[in-house]
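Tokens for chain A. Residues wanted.
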């Protein structure tokens, strides 16, 4: 299951990206301009693993204002 996790932080973009790039289930993590600060592309086995990524690996570790998670339903 692939998902895009959009993250808006109070601070710590570089730290989040560096941490996410070391995770096995993260394909890509980039700092971006716009409404969100970081975009993470994750490839997880199920919704439980996705929840762990968003709630534990991102929200509990970093100074997050909000997240938005987009689950891919179709891909080429």
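Reply:
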């Amino acid at each position: 299951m692939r998902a895009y996790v959009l993250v808006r932080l109070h601070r710590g973009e570089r730290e989040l990206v560096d941490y996410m790039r070391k995770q096995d289930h993260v394909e890509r993590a980039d700092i971006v301009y716009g409404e969100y600060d970081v975009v993470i592309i994750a490839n997880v086995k199920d919704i439980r693993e996705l929840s762990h990524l968003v709630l534990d690996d991102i929200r509990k570790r970093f100074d997050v204002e909000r997240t938005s998670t987009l689950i891919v339903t179709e891909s080429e």
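Residues 47-59 form the longest helix (13 residues). DSSP finds two helices and four strands in the chain.
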